[in-house]
Amino acid sequence: MKMEELAKVTLQNEMDLILAHRRSMRLAELAGLSLSAQTTFATAVSEVARSTIEHGKNGCLILNVSNTQREKYLVARITEDDQRLKANEGLEYAKRLVNKYNISTTGDETSIELYYHIPAPGKLDLRMLDEWRSLFRNEPAVSPYEEIKRKNEQLQDLTQRLKESEHQHKTLTNALPLIIFSLDNKGEIIYANEWLQRFTGFSTDQLNKTKWKEVVHPEDYDAFSILINPHLPQGASVIKTQCRLRHRSEEDYYWHLASISPLNDESGKLLYWTGYIVDINAQKLVEETLHDNRELKETQDRLRQHQVALEKNIAELNRSNRELQEFAYVASHDLQEPARKLSFYSDYLISKYEAALDKKGLDYLHNMQSASRRMRSLINDLLAFAQVEREGLKLSRINLNQVTHDVLQDLEMSIEEKGASVHIDPMPLMEADAGMLHQLFENLLGNAIKYAKDGVQPVVKIWAEQKGNAIRIHVKDNGIGFDEKYLPQMFTLFQRLHSSEKYTGTGLGLAICQKIVALHHGSITAHSQVGEGSTFIVTLPVTQPKGQ
Amino acid sequence: MKENSVSILMVDDDEEDWMLLSDAFEELGYRSCLHYEENGEAAVRYLQRCVEEDSLPKVIILDLNMPRLNGKQTLKHIKSEEALKDIPVIIYSTSLNPREKEECMALGAYTYVIKPASYKDSIETANDFYTLCSGIGKTKEPNL
Fold this sequence. Notes:
By secondary structure, chain A is of the alpha+beta class.
């Protein structure tokens, strides 16, 4: 059944009863009922309404038309917040005046419906009912009371609707996953949704008092403080800033976007600011990650470029090193020939024409001969030095006893000349380049004999100790010795501690030793004191590392 | 017949060295037959002629550092020729590092001699060569 609500009257006092009677009469009249029928319906309604006013609470009359296909009725529904309607005295009388009635209870509310048949309805369409409705609404007030009452009712209705609307908005703003707030022109929060406190853990009052300082990251506070600056310029539009806010339960800060915009009245005067703060941490993280990634890529690119440059430099360095080695080799090799000729011819002249020369000429010739001899030994040493690396290691299992034996033979002349005594302990077998070790021992033993003390028979002792894969060879002499502070430079090229007048030498001997030892993955050092002789110690592996 | 028994082929791009050695021979009073060729290629040609004329040198003195065919290559060639391989070849060089020495001996060099740097040495060297030459044909094992 379809009920069309047309008019409403609250039932509180006698005046309302009169109003209920009037409206019922008017509705019956509009529905085309006879005058007696109008009176009958209005009387029935009045009877029930009176009982409600006397006994009930929050009583209310609603006049309707029940508009079905088959039959049409006027329907008066009287409701009240109490059970007592059931025992409505007026209803006992009213029952007899209407066609049918109905009592129902929903919760606290009880309602009585009185049905009065419309015998000859005219056109009862929606348009007609709307007309009736507005007729009731705009009916001139019969009394000031009715006027006031009507206004009151409208006001209450509006208040109710406003309350509902506000509630809805609150629910809505609280449900949104962002902070919504409004600020007055002093920068203080007027309203904020629940999210502000839920996120920050602070109430709006606390935030106003601390000026948000507990919440906004110190580094971002300056930018953020523009938003709550009471001296914001009039006419500013949207102000946005990014800042980190601290979550109440964690020490962590999260990136947020804060935005406020002014709300002005019609004359352009600022009413207040509305704003929102939204979490952009994820976005920020992605941004940062992308940025880091880009930086990483750039660094990698730079690293690759450096590596390429480095490899180029190394190749260049190796090439120039090889060239230098080759140069040293070729130069020293080819210089041998003219140096030998110089030696030969000066010697020839001395041998064959000594008698034909005066003393000065002979002296000069002798000087020339010794200069060419020095040149030859220098060239020989340079050649040996250049050859060490040029030829590379030619490893084999060698007997050091054989090597030292050969060296002793090669040095036989200078040993005899100095009257030196050389003791060599049994030597071990090892993996090495025989030629290079020959050179090594020749240089060390040669030095031991060369740097002898005046008037003291040179005594040289050579012995070896083996410990695991390491052989330590000692070459000890009783010569002039040296200050150990010169030790580091002694093994570098062209370093000499003594003048060539007293001790001949090229300054290459120990540099060659050092190079040979390094190629064999060993080390060389020495102990000495001036005047106390010296001991050179060579440490070499018994077997060379694989893959060399 | 003595002159003929001392026939030496000297192969060296340094003509001076040949002259010095000749002088030393002369000084010792040996009228030697010291033939000179200035590189390996020329030496090989000369030896070819010797084979044809059946007048091979008794000893070959070979410098290492020469243009065209160098000392080692020449030595290899000599040792590969049936007619030449028995002629003692002496490597004659300003210097010889142990590795070169080893290589030359492995290729079949008879011995090696460092070029003299003094008058006395040059006389001794010439004398050694002469002794070697005159010994060949008399004893199987020449001593130097």
